[in-house]
Amino acid sequence: MTENDFLPLAYTNTVETGTATYKSPSNIALVKYWGKKENQLPQNPSISFTLDACATTTTVSFRKLENKSVDFSFDLWFEGSQKEDFKPKISTFLARIEAYLPFLKEYHFKIETSNSFPHSSGIASSASGMSALALCLMELERKLVSTMTADFFTKKASFLSRLGSGSACRSIEGAIVQWGSHGKTQGSSDLYGIKYPYEVHDNFKNFHDTILLVDKGQKQVSSTVGHNLMHNHPFAVERFKQAHDNLDKLITVFKTGDLNEFIKIVESEALTLHAMMMTSLPYFILMKPNTLEIINKIWAFREKTGSNVCFTLDAGANVHVLYPENEKQEIYQFITSELLVYCENQQYICDRIGLGARLMNN
After folding, report:
1. Does residue 217 carry a pLDDT above 90?
2. What is the Cα–Cα distance from 158 to 169, expressed in whole angstroms?
3. pLDDT for 70-87, tens place per residue?
């Protein structure tokens, strides 16, 4: 498919008013997306676990205007309060997707959104927030186009989500989602995420992710700035090749249930992400001393017990502790007794792999 496939033909139905509510999860990348081209297209493919507990619920109420508006007409509510400072980001998103949803200036929208995790927790909400909003808007378009298939709906929702936040396209559907063209993954695309199409061993079902909140402060560097630092990065070409190679390896890992190889890939990817930031110009160190303390504790625990616990990182100081279902009691005890001391206010969020976004009403 190309971008043109998401340009709509003439709408066949008329819709005056309505509402749509979606609950959309965040995700944590195993193979990291770092570096992008124009239009939020990735420099390398990525794959992620879809999280269940870290989710955004968004309701969009829409009312058709008597005349098409010059600007986008919407009110934005977050956690029950109007948020004017959030509106510029939404306006930018709507401008990016207007060509694909040309009805946007024909309606007034009331957007009400809330997170299942604290807003100040240090957990990025762009993936869950943008995907939930894109799904609500797609629900309106589905009412305008009576012939829309479920497959097209999913692909276009992911496509639109990507234009708001790259990682948001991995929050639409599936427990494991891949985004970006990859030679060995059938159906993969830079335009949208796809449900991982190959066999997944039971070892990777019901996987857990406990997010240790090391630093809840504002990001030292925005994702957009960070991605742009990959342009002319001295190690960029090798990094992009590494991502393809690791996705090749994961096909076998997911099929066979090889947890040892999974750990090597996931932890290497996390450290590579931070290595790219530390070797860019300007350069950044986003890990904190307590991030390193947690990593060393995990390594020591794994060496001592033979556990399959491992870690990954996003573009910040917080640590995602990953472990299989059959080790959850042992790992939870390890986290509470040895790792919480390194967390800000001893805060953490327990999560597990989910299945993607859900329609909450009709």
Report:
1. no
2. 4
3. 999 999 999 999 988 889
For residue 81, what are the β-bridge partners? 78
Q: Which pLDDT tens digit goes with each residue over 134-186?
A: 999 999 999 999 899 999 999 999 999 999 999 999 999 999 999 999 999 99
Question: Is the bond leading into 282 cis (omega within 30 degrees of zero)?
Answer: yes
Domain map of the chain by residue range?
A: 3-199, 206-352
| Residue with the two structure tokens 């109420």 | 61
Residue 59 backbone dihedrals phi, psi, to 5 degrees: -115, 130
Of the candidate CATH numbers 3.40.50.300, 3.30.230.10, 1.20.58.220, 3.30.479.10, the domain formed by 3-199 belongs to 3.30.230.10
Q: Degrees (nearest 5) of the Cα angle 176, 4, 131?
A: 35
**Residues 208, 348 contacting (CB under 8 angstroms):** no
Superfamily of domain 206-352: GHMP kinase, C-terminal domain (3.30.70.890)
Rounded Cα distance between 340 and 347, Å, is: 7
CA–CA separation, 11 and 8 (whole Å): 8
Residue type for 246, please? Answer: N
What are residue 30's phi and psi, to 5 degrees?
A: -90, -50
